Protein: DEAD/DEAH box helicase domain protein
Organism: Nitrosarchaeum koreense MY1
Amino acid sequence: MKFSCPKCKSKLEIQKTFNKKIHISCSCGIEDLLEFSKNIDEVFLEFLSRFDEGLVTKKGISEGLKNEGIIRDEKEIKKMIGKNNPDKTTEDILFSKRDFISQYKVLTNPEPKMGSDVEDMGLDESISNHLKEIGINQFYKFQEEAIQEVSFGENVIIEAPTASGKTEAFLIPVIQKIKKESNNVRGVFAVFVYPTKALSRDQYPKILKFAEKIGIKVKVFDGDTEQIERREILESPPHILVTNFDVIHYHLWHQTRFSSLLSTIKVLVVDETHVYSGIFGSNVHYIIKRLKRICSNKIQFVAASATLEDAKNFCEQLFGVKMKIIHGSGKKGQTDFVMLFPSLRTQRSLMIDLTKKMTEKNHKTMVFNNSHLNSELLAIQAKKQKINIKVHRAGLMANYRKSVEQEFKSDKLQAISCTPTLELGIDVGNVDCVISSTIPVNRLIQRIGRAARKGQRGYAFLALGNDPISQYYKNHPDDYFEDVEKTYIDPKNPFVEEFQVLAMACDRPISKHELKEHEGIIKQHIENENLIIHNNRIIPNFDKISSLLNDYSIRGIGKSLDIFLNEKKVGDRVLPIALEELHKDAIYFLAGIRYRVKECGYPQRNFAKLERISRDYPYYTKALTEEWPTIETVFETRKAYGIEVAFCKLHIQKKVYGYVNIELGQEITQGQKVLLDSPLEYDFITKGIVFHAPRPIDQIKKAEDEEYTEASGYHATEHVVIEGSNMITGGVSQDLGGISLGTSGLIFIYDGAIGGNGASKALFDRFEKALERSMFIVKECPCQSEAGCPRCTFSYRCGNNNEYLHKYSALEILQRINKGEETKLEEPTEGDKPLV
């Protein structure tokens, strides 16, 4: 329904704000803030009445919004702009009075340092001639360094932005080495590894075009390679093979003909190395170790990556060798960057509005979302506003994704709503604007790197959300630029090690003097008859372990529940998270459509069956859980301010006992409780930290229910520390779980992945910063609720329906910690009720 402005007759904009008000505004400048009511007609009538009484003005409400920190004062915005000269589009966004402008700056790249001329590099004549043909007469300095170091046989990390010339920096020296050793090249000389098939296929034509001109043979081998082409590759191996680690893992342990090709490689190039973090990276560490083991040559390693906080240490841990780092920069135009906090609307509403403003000016726009569902919902709502936009995300058919890329590249499509799939180097042509939800700054810079590559003016918007870390950045925008992503792997994850040692025995029998560092695991496998001693060698018991290895995914570990719709498998979900999402009567999201779980076979069988529900069904579900932690081993302890914190091996017993129905679109994650007839139980080993929080003495003294106030304070503290650590540890809060044990003061924060993924260790190493930030999140939240709100104490992952939370107790606890109050760790007792 259209509500017209009583002053100029234009369409009014009516929005629900996050402090339960209704904000009404018009393009002519009048606006008002009214009490929330579900009946919009009543709100509009009250607005007309106030207008008639002269209470609706151009200035009054804006002054109130400024005073409450809902919008930024124009003087402050002008001070941010300074001597910069934003264009009309950016200016309209900065002064729109619809969002809080946290930061405005112009991002400029210094001109890249130039290196030697092509003809002075001593390259093979065919390479030099081809480079001149394609217009490259001089290298960037970082390319020159990379070419020299790789040619000399050094293990190298090339760290440079997207589209800065990284591919040439590793491709040219590899081709040079092949030309130089042409008489000795037998089989595959180099393997180029990409994290996804889509990226392999995108980069392959570029590599092929260059290599073919020099007489070098290149082929791609992955899950989509046809049988005829596979046969050709096996019978006549290329000099360079393009693939991924999933393929290498599978063929090594199956000892296929393809795995024998891998035994000849001399150079392994791993592009987009920053992707190999967490469980995936821990598995890749072992796959690289396995390649070294079966190769007849000593492998030279070349890593190419976007900006990492500590690329050298990370890559040396991943590859298991010493490496030399080379830094590069790319040439591009200046970019107007704005960080916005959506005080008066949702994050999605802000992102759609920005997309509309950009596309109306014919600026080609990429909109990055942090989940599949958000990318779908944004596109659906944007299309309703006549925006020419399509979705690009994992889980969609490859040919559809390719068509979206081509339409955008050929200017038939104005905008793409995407997930991090397009963070990687897939070529989508010219981009003017990047809009992103909250992510670590180095990944944002990589996304922004998509814009203004042709030297034109670029636009970049960071749309903060309505969550604790976004509120923190609203008030402390400079800290955002310090929070570089922490990339981590955990080679000592016992489950990764256990499976990968089995895979090693399948690759090639283990001799008795080998793999001393895995002696304990090998002994355990022999005792369990997974491995057998035969002729003084250790070989796999294939009858027993083949199903184990077939079920194992290098991108995640643990068993999965298979998901069926109409008796057809449509997906799977790894345990233990599967129990929270696929219990009976859960509402499950699949490709933007909601289904109900009609049957969950767990624990007897690992499946869940879905059924369709009507599109207008008003709810989704959130599991209710209980968890009990047991400390198995303490690896390390230290003091953070005055509190003792331990990094340990934990045994987590988990129970899903019910769920809540939450209304779609509701911001507060609380709902109506429903108990399951048969609770689902699961226990697993992981790693995490534990600390003893100080008592909130002042709040306890004021309280009628002292026990509730204390326990709820610890529970709220656990939530805020996890959310507050999000960007400090590289956006890993989604990888973490938490438990606070009643009034004991003990708080556990653990890796959600079985065996651990390194996220909690990243938090352990930076714990002081997380504790300080957590205090500011609670202190600066304007909500008056005792329990808090989604911007401070609530968690979207809470298994307790966001109940038993006390904002002011949590603030006192965090203030006591930051002032240095001392605590010591004690063992939990059975009487402590866990809150998660």
